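Hello,

Following up on my earlier ticket. Below are the two sequence lines again, exactly as submitted.
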Amino acid sequence: MVMVVRKSTGFLIVLLVGGLFMAGLLFIHPHLQRDDYERGLAKRKHLVRELQLTDLCLFTEARYTRHLSQADLHSPFQDYPMAFEHFPSGSLVLPPEHLLKK
Amino acid sequence: MGNVEYELAETAEINAENNNNDISLCALCEREKQSRKFLSDMKWIERQRAFMDFTLSSLWRRKVRNLSLLLVYALVIFLLSSVIFFAHALRKEAEAILEGSPQMIVQRTVGGRHSLIPIDYVEKIDQIRGTSSVKPRLWGYYYHPASRSNYTIMVPENYSRTDDIVETGAGVLRTWGALWDGKLYLKAHDGEAIFLKPINTMTDETDLVSADLILMSETTFRKISGVPEGYATDLTVRIRNERECQTIARKIVQVLPDTRPILKEEIIRTYSSLFDWRGGYVIVLLGGAVLAFFIFAWDKATGLSAEEKTEIGILKGIGWDTSDVLMMKFWEGVVISLTAFLLGVITAYVHVYFVSAPLFEHALKGWAILYPKFTLRPAVNAYQLAILFFLTVVPYTLITIVPTWKVAVTDPDVVMRH
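Thanks for your patience. The regenerated structure is below:
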């Protein structure tokens, strides 16, 4: 005899399994990775302290995006007085907070 | 006396028995109430499950349409979640790493631009009370035309290798291209060719801060960059008491008006605001995803298909209430949005924390060639999940009910004829 499972039962089981999988990923996986991550972070911190670094190496296309925190306020527009910013990552960065408040 | 006692005892016994009877009657009533409530609860649950069965069958009848809907919806949630997870993880990473950066950097500005700073400024800053050490930093950029990449060249404080050896970040050799007899070919500022033997001392684990670094001796640096003797790129200042940073920065500007101090807290704040999900580049990415979601939800809200309208008409015709039809549509919204939410969040997690968000690589890279390899620390909190849930599942579920309500309140005859 073939047992027919109700559609709602099937869906609730799928939802439960999916929910448990998601909870496992979100709340258990980070703990499993912690030791590896902490080791890497310690190395990065050590290098920053030793070389006196100030910025992340994320946007390497222009000097003022490579060293965001070191760039002077005019650097994206310094080619000539009416110059527009032309590097893609530069256009993704917001102007300083005090300029936005004006 | 004995009789009176006996009568009193008998009366007390009867009273107790009556009380017990009353209590047991009350308990029976309570049990009856509970079982009725349980039955009505069971009925309610059974009724909802019946709605869900019907909804799932109805969704399966139009499986191609609904599966494509689910896919688009999951994709939008995937984009939104990826942006939120990625920005949060990068922000935390930046805050953790940059904790070790110098307490203060002093730059010299000329005409509003960063300029080379004379090394004799060191003495002037060192005389300010509260500073424990002031050191010149030598660093700059080198553009390599063959790989079309920018690299950061730098002189570490205690560089132990000879002038013809450089230490490189993992990204340098990855992008440099062909080596000249195992050496890097660089052009000095005066056009002279320089060959340097690279040693890769920095691993992929530090790529996020060191991918483009080329560390060299002071002599080699000055030869390549053209920074003259007696000048440095900027100065690092160590301060005894961190709370005095602002005061010391003010004093430095008073003594050396052409300088610009940058505090560590400003460096960290720059990255915090850059990766804040409500600002910076994140809002650009997030804006696209939210817009896609609203177009999608709006399309859903503006009307039902003819087939769906006929189905509602038939259901009303065979005796379904408007509330039943709305309940069915509510379950339809719940089934689709919860499934899409699970799919979207799980795939976004894998995208950001397992494969380091390759979809965002192009947005961050811009015109650059060099991009670091990095793995972010998985960290998702309840706040982020709540934002995602209320941005996606709740509006979609509510939106699906509105057009159904419009049809469900119309006469079934009119709906079916239409």
